[in-house]
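Practice problem: predict the structure.
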Amino acid sequence: MKKVRGVANVRVSLNDGLTVLDLAPANNVTLAELRRIIRNNGFVSKDAGIVARGSLGDPGTFTVSGTNERLTVSGPPRRTGDDWALTVPAPDKP
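Answer:
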């Protein structure tokens, strides 16, 4: 993950099965790309907690600024200053 352009910092807890990524400002990394990398490395992507800038769309959707990636969210996003905190459910199994 550290080699992915736009990823500034990576913290991994194998005990908790958790990866925390800090992205650089103005990055263009999408959640879909990150999940593809996770899957290709033999891991399973679960629900993702995200803090991002963007806009709410139709109920249950959020569009990320910069990438225009449209995400389905579970639960209501929470405003945190200029950003939104939201949870994106795990992808369906291929």
